[in-house]
Every structure is written in structure tokens, then in C-alpha cells.
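Exercise 3.2. Students should predict the tertiary structure of the chain below and write it as C-alpha cells, then compare their answer with the key that follows.

Predict this chain's 3D structure.
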Amino acid sequence: MANHKTQSPLDFCPGPVGRRSFMQVGLAGFASLSYPGLLRLRAENALKPDHEKTAVIMVWLPGGLSHVDSYDPKPEVGSEYRGPFKTIGTKIPGTRITELLPMHAKIADKFNIVRSMHQGAGGHPAGTIQLLSGDPDTRDKPKPKYPDWMSVANYIRAQEGGRANPLPNYVAVNSINATYSGPTYLGNAYSPFAVSADPNRPNFEVPNIGLADPAETRRLSDRLALRRSLDRLEREFDREGELEALDEFETQAMTLLTNPKTRDAFDIAKEDKKTRDRYGRNRWGQQLLLARRLVESGVEIVTSTLSGPLCGRVNNWDDHAVNHHQFDALRFRMPNYDQAVTALIEDIYARGLDKRVLVVVTGEFGRTPKISFSRSTGGGNASGPTGTLQPGRDHWPRAFSNIWAGGGMQTGGVIGASDKRGEDVIERPCGPGDFLSTIYHHLGIDYQKITIDDFNGRPTPIVNEGKPIKELVA
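Answer key:
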């Protein structure tokens, strides 16, 4: 398959960058493409026209949602395991979730719950890396070895060619921790276009898109025209046509700066006030509304991390007793989570995007079914003052839950099961390879055949083992 020989010379910055740096990063990555490889991938992976191409929104819960306090409750177990939350019925007879998710209960016919996810890594770095890239190594590493599925999909879609949309193909609305994920040997050109600002702020704006000043747009166009004139002088010496490939991708970077469609897609203020209210007038709600706007505008890969102050004192879902009072933390954050996620799912269906767009909501693992107690290391939202003895749940990769919607799938189901305490999977186990294969299948990516050369030039599969979860595919 395609051979990506060099990495971008500039380090990726997850936050806003200046226009010059943005153009350098984009063009450096574009220049490293092998044009014959691009043509080969384009021929081998010719998919649907742009307007019909499938997309994925992944809502990421860093630190891991407690499965037994949300989608896989265990009301019959003893007090050592059982939390304080009651269970409630849903729109699907026989399916029960906890009382923390009343809006989920009302639309349970629009998503599937997988209760049998598992992986082998108990640390946040390794757990995230394993689920998002398929790396079987269970040790925590300072950086990933393999590219995550988002970067892989961005790389493959970019090399299929013929994409007219001026928007970036991969956008991260509040990025996943960059030390846990990334493009690795694909190069930084396939990192996400990162939106780090809070979309709920009245002055929310995304830099490096849609220049409003016509004079500045003209100046950039003149510079690009001059560069192309110089490039044409070297064309006859360019045996592999790499300058022609550069032209194609340079144009995409230029278009991102100058096309008004890019500014419109990120302009969340254009949304109806009732729609914004439905998602929730907070960071999480507006992040997921922006995610929907982006896929509707043609972006094909969107991630949105639900983190920060809405989680509680330590800004994530890592509910050790030293960090949070586990149950106070869930009471604190779940109303906003419940509202934002269900608004996204409902909106995907209401706008007719449910066949084209797949939504998956997950963290890297679950939390220990057995409750532990320890003393708080600091007071704040969802945590008692320093020294307060409080309950918590620790890391648990052996069984956890996630939810899936859209993607043309039949919904309203529960897939797999954990044991009576939620400790281990006992029915229909689904691992990282199955997770990745399901997403690639929806995107039309042949996960069984495609390999990408690593830093040493070795062809590396994008999925080592696994197959799509059949209940989650159209």
C-alpha cells in the first residue's frame, strides 16, 4: 500500500497556531506524499462521491466511565459493589440503565449498548493507545507506536483523491491527550485540525479559517500564484510528479484559509437558539453541536473529548477516591452528559444523517465494580476537603460499556454481557480489534488488506485481529 517515507519537520501543536505555521505544517505534510502512491491508493480505494461518504463522530470520555453506574447496572449485588443509584426502564422493554441517564432512557431505540467491551491495558496511556490503535502492548509508553484510527482514516481518505470540500477531513473538538494518540509514522500532516476554544463562549472563534479580509485573501492568492509559476519551471525535472501532488494539497490548505464555507461550518452562532438549548448551554453541549455541524458540512472524522471543569475537580472521568467522591462526581457531571449525548444522537436522526454518520461514545476502560475508599487529596467539585474519606472506583479494562448510534445500523439493542458483578465479559466479547474494524467498515476502509509502511519501511496492518461487530453494521 502507500509508502509514507518522511514525517513533517514541524511538531504538531494541539492548540491554535499562526497562519504561517499552519501553512508550513500543512504544506510540509503534503510535500512528503509520493504521487504514484497517491494514484495507486486512489484507484484501489475509489469510494462514493464526496456527498455520500460516511463519517464518524467519536465522543471520548478520558479516564473511563463507570459501566456499572451507567449502562450496565448491577442492582442485585452487595453494598461492596452496588452504588447508590436506582435503575430505570428504557424505551426498549427489558433494557434498564441507571437513573443518571433519563434522557438516554427515552431514546434507547436510537442507539445500541455494547456491554462486553474489554482490553488488556490498565493504565490510561496504554488503555487509550490499545483501543484507538490496536497496539497489544499493555505497558504505558510515553507515546504511541502505531497511528490511531482517526489519523489512519484521514490518511487513507486523503489519498483517495478528488475531495472538493474545503474543510479539514479530521477535526478534534477538544483534542484527545496527544501523548496517548496521534499519527506516529504517518506524519503530523494527518493530525487533526484542533479546536481548543470553548464553543459555548460568546466570543468563540476558530483561528486559521475563512479569512474575513478580502485584501489579505488576495495577497495570499498572489503569493500562491508566484510559487506555482516557479514550480512550473522545475516541472520537467520532477520525474514522480510530486510537485503536482503538492499543488493539489497546497490548494486545499489555501482553500481552508479563504473559502467562506469553512468559517460558516465553525460558526456555531448560526444555530437556532432552541437547538443550542437542547444540547445544553455549556462546553460539552456546544462541542457536540459543533461536531454535528462539521459532519453535516462534510468533515468525515470528528472527535470530541468531554473533559474539563464539567467533570469535577480533576477535570476528567478518573474517579479514584483520591480524586473524586465517585458518586458525587457522577451526580455532578451526568446531567450535562445525558443532555449533550442524547441531543447529538437525536439530531443525527432528525437531520437524516443516521445512515452516513456513525456516533460512538466511549472511554478507554470502565471502573472497578468493587468500591474502594481513600482520603481526598483536595477539595472541590465532587470531592471533599483534603483528608475526607470518600468512595471511588479504579481502572477496569476487563469489562466496560460504550454506546453506538447511526451508521445505518439497527438500533435499540444490547450487545454482550458482563458477569453478575460487572467484572468480566461472559457473552459476546468485543476487543480493540473489533472496535477498530467496526469503525473502518463504516468508513469503507478495507481493514483486512490495507497496510501502511512504518518508520522502518515495514508494511504494517491497520488492524492486527478482529472483525466488525455485526450488530453495529448496516
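Discussion points: The chain has one domain: 19-213+259-472. The chain is about 30% helix and 15% strand.
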